[in-house]
Amino acid sequence: MATNTDSITDAVNSDPAALEQRAGASGRMLIKAVDRAAHMQSGAIVKYVEWLRAGNPDASPSEIQKMMDKHLKRLAMGSGAGAGAAAAIPGIGFVTGAAAVGAESLVFLDAATLYVMASAYLRGVDIHDEERRRALILVVLLGSAGTLIVDAAVGDLNKKNGASVAATLTRFGAPRLKDVNSKLTAAAVKRMGKKFKAAWLGKLLPLGVGAVVGTFANRTLAHKVISNARTSLGPLPAEF
């Protein structure tokens, strides 16, 4: 069984190009989703949060966060069931389901990366720097393993007690941040690849069972992303 320490060891001296070549389908999907989020215009993220605020002018940051949580869970559950149902089509169910799962997993990853960026912005985290965005997304996807990688990279910066991972990342210069991202990417590809492989197999179960399993698998992934975001991004402000 892999440990958080294993994730750090496996990530050391990771070459981005070589990593993508050996990442497998799910790993490459993850890398592309993170790349898209890293290059996304920050205005799109701000617009999403401000749209929620405009529709709920009296809502606190905590209430806006809960709305974002619901959006992620609804999208995850809907796309998971759709891919599972596609696998039940008589005769061609497996092929159709495999294609649907690939597209659906990409949709979930895109939604998860947007969720992380919007949650960070809601907390006042600077989301304009591409490498910092990449680090934030990967840390949230990895959870405690990502936190350990960042902590190991702090070194002489002496992480402040109680500081969130998001706050710690703001202290990294560009070279150190790129090095951390290389390690985070390697660890995320390995870990997320296993999670999506398990979910993928479950969604292709015959006789419609995959629809139920698909919904449950994606809901579990969504809950994990939400929980990791709370831990990694730090507390929400009491008010705007």
Automatic annotation (TrEMBL):
Superkingdom per UniProt: Bacteria
Keywords for the protein's UniProt record, in alphabetical order: Membrane, Transmembrane, Transmembrane helix
Protein name, as recorded: EcsC family protein
Where are the bilayer-spanning segments? 75-100, 106-123, 135-154, 198-217
